[in-house]
Write a sequence for this structure.
């Protein structure tokens, strides 16, 4: 089986996730600039979430460029990853209603950890389907960023109980780490 | 890497943005002309936004026709453009609740300005990915219209505090300028 339908399904789901998040943003209560200020935090949560979904989509795009073969396990691993991504708009809505609290920051970290873990599982089953000498195995061989991310989220989940703000700094730091484009796939595809 | 998945995501996001905007529209409160008149400004904002997003999509569509290669920088420039476009339905809702007042109208300009900057960055990233003698580079040419809209949106942002209606006039003017289809890419395709 080739990757066409898996990719188009993923693109559809991600397009909806990344767009409906905006529905969680309330409009300012009055027409002045002062009315925008209380929304700054929620707006930052929106921007961070948009970046996270964008990062996962970019990585998916890159990884699937070099994947030649998918099987039932790959499809399930992909769905599992999409499931965790789909919870991100829900978290933005929660932040919108209760603000940046220990619980919302904790939930964000847990969902992020599961997004990262499910992406690592997807990579593992793709390599299993395509063989240890496949382009996807070679392109992801020196993947240290994935492991750093998982560790950073586990740390952030612990840190939430000390200081939610410190955990938020970790979330932004991980996003910054991934914003640097990954050249490994581009070199392989040309 | 070719552009098929980038296009699929873009089309998905823009289709949803165009569609959720209509959810911001309210039905007239009662079956009378006066009630219809009350929702006219919002209908106007909806129409203008639909046209603006349509213009971005058309231009993207044309530009991506002559694109053969994308890379990480292109994906990010494209996502940045999508980010700003997703905020348009939010501003429409604000204009609905606060009316045609300086800050909501200026915010509309700020978002269009950021969208225009992202579009310029996307053009630049595509040319960087494909090379100086690529079809995209030749088709994009001088970017004259891009810079005109850029400057007009910046002016409209400031002028909203003099009169929001001047800004609205400028937004409409930029739309009219872009409404004339961009033949640069069609000639090459």
């Amino acid at each position: 089986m080739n990757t066409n339908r898996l990719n188009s399904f993923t693109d559809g789901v991600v397009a909806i996730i990344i767009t409906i998040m905006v529905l969680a943003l309330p409009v300012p209560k009055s027409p002045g600039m002062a009315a925008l200020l209380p929304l700054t935090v929620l707006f930052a949560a929106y921007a961070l979430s948009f970046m996270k979904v964008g990062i996962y989509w970019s990585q998916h795009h890159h990884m699937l460029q070099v994947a030649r073969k998918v099987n039932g396990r790959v499809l399930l691993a992909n769905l599992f990853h999409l499931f965790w991504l789909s919870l991100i708009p829900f978290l933005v809505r929660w932040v919108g209603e209760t603000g940046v609290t220990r619980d919302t920051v904790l939930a964000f970290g847990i969902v992020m950890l599961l997004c990262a873990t499910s992406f690592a599982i997807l990579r593992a089953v793709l390599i299993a389907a395509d063989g240890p000498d496949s382009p996807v195995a070679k392109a992801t061989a020196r993947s240290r960023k994935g492991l750093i991310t998982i560790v950073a989220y586990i740390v952030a989940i612990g840190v939430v109980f000390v200081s939610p703000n410190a955990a938020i700094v970790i979330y932004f730091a991980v996003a910054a780490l991934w914003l640097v484009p990954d050249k490994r796939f581009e070199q392989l595809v040309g | 890497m070719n552009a098929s998945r980038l296009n699929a995501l873009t089309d998905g996001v823009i289709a949803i943005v165009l569609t959720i905007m209509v959810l911001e529209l309210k039905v007239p409160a009662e079956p009378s002309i006066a009630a219809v008149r009350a929702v006219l400004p919002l209908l106007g904002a909806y129409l203008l936004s639909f046209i603006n997003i349509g213009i971005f999509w058309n231009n993207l569509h044309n530009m991506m026709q002559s694109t053969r290669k994308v890379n990480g920088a292109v994906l990010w420039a494209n996502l940045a453009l999508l980010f700003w476009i997703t905020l348009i339905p939010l501003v429409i809702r604000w204009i609905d609740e606060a009316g045609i007042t300086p800050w909501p109208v200026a915010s509309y300009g700020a978002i269009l300005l950021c969208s225009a900057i992202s579009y310029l960055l996307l053009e630049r990233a595509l040319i960087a990915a494909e090379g100086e003698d690529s079809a995209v580079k030749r088709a994009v040419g001088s970017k004259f219209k891009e810079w005109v809209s850029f400057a007009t949106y910046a002016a409209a942002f400031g002028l909203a505090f003099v009169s929001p209606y001047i800004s609205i006039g400028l937004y409409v003017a930029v739309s009219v300028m872009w409404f004339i289809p961009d033949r640069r890419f069609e000639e090459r395709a």
Notes: Chain B has nine helices and no strands. The mean pLDDT of chain B is 88.
